Amino acid sequence: MPPLFELQDVSFDYDGVPALSRLNLQIERGQQIVLLGANGSGKSTLLRLLNALCFPSLGSVRFEGNLLTRESSQRDEFMLTFRRRTALVFQNPDAQLFNPTVFEEIAFGPLQMQWSEAEVTRRVNETMDLMGISHLRGRPPYRLSGGEKKRVALASVLVLDPEVLLLDEPTATLDPRTQSQFIDLVQGWRDTSKTVITATHQLDIVEDIARSALVMEAGTVVASGSTSEILMNSELLLKTNLIHAHRHSHNGIVHSHPHSHRHSHQH
Amino acid sequence: MSRNSFLFSTIRSFNDAVARSLVSERLSTAPYLLQQFDPRVRLISIFLLILATVFCRRLSILTFVFALSVMLAIASHVSVWSLVKRVWVIVFVFTGLIALPALFTTSGEILVHFPGSLSITRQGLRTALMLVLRVETTATLTTTLVLCTAWNRLLRGLRSLGIPSELIVIAAMTHRYIFLLIETANQMFESRVSRTVGVLGWRQERSITTQSAAVLLSKSMDLSHEVYLAMLARGFRGDIRLLGEQRLRVWDCLGLISIGALAALVIWVGR
After folding, report:
1. Helices (H), strands (E): how many in chain A?
2. CA B42 to CA B54: how far, in whole Å?
3. Three-class secondary structure of residue B241 per DSSP
4. Which stretches within B121-201 are classed as H helix?
5. Which residues in chain A are closer than 8 Å to B179, comparing Cβ atoms?
6. For chains A and B, what is the number of CB pairs under 8 angstroms?
7. With a cut of 0.90, is the ipTM above it?
């Protein structure tokens, strides 16, 4: 069986500005991967390529052995199945929330999949309950707080129950409680067949939401491994700007060491 | 406030626009007369009353419809003061300007004679009053409808009247992103104010406005591209699909029949 995603020598540029460079990658079904990298390292572009929203300038992207190209994106039958199975949560929820009410926002995807109205209504209600946003159903998305918008954006793709979730900075702007709820949700998918690929530079949530990590820098993967291996590699994290050297002094002697924030809790 | 008055007044305008929309949104869900009806019934009823206003040729009947529209607004908790400010004065000034020549050019029984050959006739006055009253009535009815109906429900109502779903979606997205752009523009101006020291000249203020408009346009183009990608990501294939309508209640049907009968009566009596 071919891998879920297979990228071979993929390069991509925005009007001549390179975003990805000769990237090779394989992602298997059921993996929970985190894409780590500083701003501009190519994480969001990679997610868009995986979601067939843009296509490589060079190289190839395959989904279950099928080439994702501009031509294949024109084939309704293939794309309907592809969109049903893979979902992307955008970094900016304002881009994702374009319907007049939260209910209609969440119903948008199922309606495009040509589900019956009764099924759409049932699934939307279930998803709103799951995400704890039923009280927002009649509200316009643009009136919501940042955290509420993120939850609605997540609900708008979860309603399709996709097999592959591509999450672009899902916890940015979330308050600690909502962030914790999000982590619980992702952990709940651990023993399922869901593939979850999360782009982030928040190291404190990495071990909670993924088992393996890819580190990206300047549009290519510079390291991969288990999340604990990657997080232990301070030299790598420092080099890729995921942590910084913290300068301070003890008894008048100035020195510096790598610094990062990790998730901790109290009992 | 005199310092950077242009910047401050722009920010105030943005805030006013958002505040007005909030008030309107709250009013649209409040339990008053018009809000009790299905949006489709509201839309069709107001449309019928506007038709009656347009076809009514008797001043007394038209005055009755105007009074009815004001009562409808009051019963729906629309502030009369806001109608005066936002509708009646503006309509009076602009329609009055259009109606002014009719006062003097329509021949008939002279009411007031001015020095020279200028005079106001009874027929001219009636024509001018009819025009102003018609526009005041239709503007009052449409403002009441808009204030008492959430935008999304109004669009749903329009859809049920056969307006193509593509137009409805475009209107809905335009409305949604107007507020997003207002917020963005507001943040841009606030950030400008927070970094401005001293008094800006008229030329500088104009320059700021032009630059801000250009940046806002660029941002909105980026955002529109993102929105399109987000639609594609959720299965959009160029064909808009929306949820269907709910069934009308007995109360809605009764309301619609009553307004329909009233509109027909106004047209018949006022012919």
Report:
1. 10, 12
2. 18
3. coil
4. 122-148, 151-160, 165-194
5. 142
6. 82
7. no
Closest chain A residue by Cα to residue B179: A142
**Interchain CB distance below 8 Å, B243 and A107:** yes
Are the beta carbons of B130 and B59 closer than 8 angstroms? yes
Q: Which residues of B touch A138 (CB under 8 A)?
A: 29
For residue B88, the 8-state DSSP code is I
The end-to-end CA distance of chain A, in Å, is: 45
Q: Which amino acid is at A63?
A: F
The model's pLDDT over B128-146, given as tens digits with 9 standing for 90+, comes to 999 999 999 999 999 999 8
Question: Can you tell me the distance from the alpha carbon of B10 to that of A142, in angstroms, rounded to the nearest whole number?
Answer: 21
Determine the residue of chain B that is closest to A91 in CA distance: B226
Query: Residue A22's pLDDT is what?
Result: 93
A63-118 tens-digit pLDDT: 999 999 999 888 888 888 999 999 999 988 888 888 878 998 999 999 988 899 89
pLDDT tier, B1 (very low <50, low <70, confident <90, very high otherwise)? very low
Contact B99, B125 (CB under 8 A): no
Q: Minimal Cα–Cα distance from A157 to chain B, Å?
A: 7
- The continuous run of DSSP H or E covering B13 comes out as helix B5-28
Measured over the CA atoms of residue B122, residue B125, residue B131 and residue B135, the dihedral's sign is: negative
- CB pair distance less than 8 Å for A87 and B232: no
